[in-house]
Amino acid sequence: MNIAIVEDEPKLAALLNEYLQKEDYQTSIYSDGTEALEKLQLTPPDLILLDLMLPGTDGLTICREIRKTSNVPIIMLTARVEEIDRLLGLEIGADDYICKPYSPREVVARVKAVLRRAEPQTTSDDERFVLLEQEALVKVNGIPCTLTQVELLLLKTMHAHPGRIYNRQQLMHRIYPDNRIVSDRTIDSHVKKLRQKLKALDTENEYIHSVYGLGYKFELIN
What is the location of CATH 3.40.50.2300 in the chain? Predict the structure, then answer.
């Protein structure tokens, strides 16, 4: 797997590079945000370690732009520990957030954990629950159902990472990349309609779960 290290401090980038390569990861290093965004959009890696403060384009902008087209896992690295930065980093689609100073071993452990969460579904799961993006269809136990564009984007986002909790801001950004203003109730309404469609296909199981105070997640019941 290839890990992109977007870090403008040469010593930190070299240290992360050394530890990741010891774990048999391939690495690419970028010190300029604008160059990094161009290269990452052209050739997405398997995971991005993304510093917040960068010359050129900053880390939050890079994360926001990448999330318009890709679900590649992103771990943000920063010395700015203010709560607003932490929340903003996660709301725009980051998968994890590590504050400096950090242990390189901790970063490697977080990389492994995020990559495990990003692993694709098993064959048996895919046979039971199939999302057909080109046709805007979902099949549950072989029974098809047509989805609206918003429902497709919602399900695609959550289905890609089973068990991961998405808050409303994250879901808004995935289904409305133009950053239009929509309320939390709009997201709740779309999720409700999607759940009703899935329930009609399988009355025995819930696939989209509400997590009180946090958001929504997709899970397949074994």
Answer: 2-117
Architecture of domain 123-218: Orthogonal Bundle (1.10)
Q: Write down the architecture of domain 2-117 according to CATH.
A: 3-Layer(aba) Sandwich (3.40)
The reported pLDDT for the residue numbered 86 is: 58
Question: What's the pLDDT score for residue 122?
Answer: 40
At 118-135, the pLDDT tens digits run 765 443 445 688 888 878
Per DSSP, which regions of the chain are E strands?
A: 2-6, 26-30, 47-51, 74-78, 96-99, 129-132, 137-140, 143-146, 208-211, 215-218
Which residue in 70, 128, 123 sits closest to 94, CA to CA? Answer: 70
Residue written as token pair 């991005």: 48
Q: Which amino acid is at 31?
A: S
Q: What is the DSSP letter of 100?
A: S
Q: Exposed, middle or buried by CB within 10 Å (0-12, 13-18, 19+), for 29? A: middle
Helix or strand run (H / E) with residue 14? helix 10-22
Reduced to 3 states (helix: H, G, I; strand: E, B; else coil), residue 155 is: helix
User: What Cα–Cα distance (Å) separates residue 173 from each residue in 44, 168, 169, 185?
Assistant: 20, 9, 6, 15
